[in-house]
Specification:
Layout (H helix, E strand, L loop, with lengths): L1 E5 L3 H13 L3 E5 L2 H6 L5 E5 L7 H11 L4 E6 L3 H10 L3 E5 L3 H15 L9 E4 L2 E4 L4 E4 L2 E3 L3 H10 L6 E3 H9 L8 H14 L5 E4 L3 E4 L4
Parallel strand pairs: 1-2, 1-3, 3-4, 4-5
Antiparallel strand pairs: 6-7, 7-8, 8-9, 10-12, 11-12
Bound molecules: calcium ion (CA).
Length: 220
């Protein structure tokens, strides 16, 4: 996983690169739009919108034209219009400066889960804890029998299975299954999860993590 950090403030950029490398990513810094375009291909892009050599949104278009990598935009505090424009253009997420490094890593991981860019996501048929998730047909099987589930139930299980064992927040599930522009209560997720548990006849396989979200429990 190679992350391109586009940031003209070299001190910030270097710190980000160092931190991301500590997290196990490979990271490369580009201080201008021109250098950024020369650094492709990459798997993920952090784009600071305030750059010296060109407009950040224009660079976003140029990157999107040649790269499928997810893009998180970095904006200055208060640049509300820029942020909204960024999301309208199809940025995967944005963070507002100043931000904490942990928050950034959490957002990168959330985008990776949502976009399915993680390596283990490429499994078209995945078996976790005795549940077979078939991404070709959007179907779920247990003990060889197909379960009749709704698209949302399938979506929730498929999303949790992208990172088995990890705690996925309700907001991540909403973003991933309902879409990032869906605004509503996260409460209804519980209703879908309860129904899914019943259909799987495995009440414990999707664990509720109180106050946070859900986790697909990995068993033999
Ligand atoms: Ca800047």
């Amino acid at each position: 996983m190679r992350i391109l950090v586009i940031e003209d403030d070299v001190a910030i950029g270097a710190a980000l690169v160092k931190g991301l490398e500590r997290e196990g990513y490979s990271a490369v810094l580009a201080a201008t739009g021109a250098l950024a375009l020369n650094s492709l291909p990459v798997d993920f892009i952090l784009l600071d919108l305030g750059l010296p050599d060109r407009d950040g949104l224009e660079l976003f278009h140029q990157l999107r034209a040649v790269s499928k990598a997810p893009i998180i935009m970095v904006t200055a505090r208060g640049a509300e219009e820029e942020r909204i424009a960024g999301l309208d253009l199809g940025a995967d997420d944005y963070v507002v400066k100043p931000f904490g490094f942990r928050e950034l890593v959490a957002r990168i991981n959330a985008v990776l889960r949502r976009t399915g860019a993680r390596e283990n996501d490429t499994q078209l048929v995945q078996v976790v804890s005795g549940i077979e998730i078939d991404r070709r047909t959007h179907s779920i099987r247990t003990r060889g029998e197909e379960i009749s589930c709704t698209p949302k139930e399938y979506g929730i299980l498929e999303f949790l299975a992208r990172d088995p064992g990890a705690v996925i927040t309700r907001q991540e599930l909403l973003d991933g299954v309902w879409g990032p522009h869906w605004f509503g209560s996260t409460k209804m997720i519980d209703v879908h999860v309860a129904s899914l548990r019943r259909k799987l006849s495995m009440p414990d396989v999707i664990e509720t993590v109180r106050g946070i979200g859900f986790r697909l429990v990995v068993s033999e």
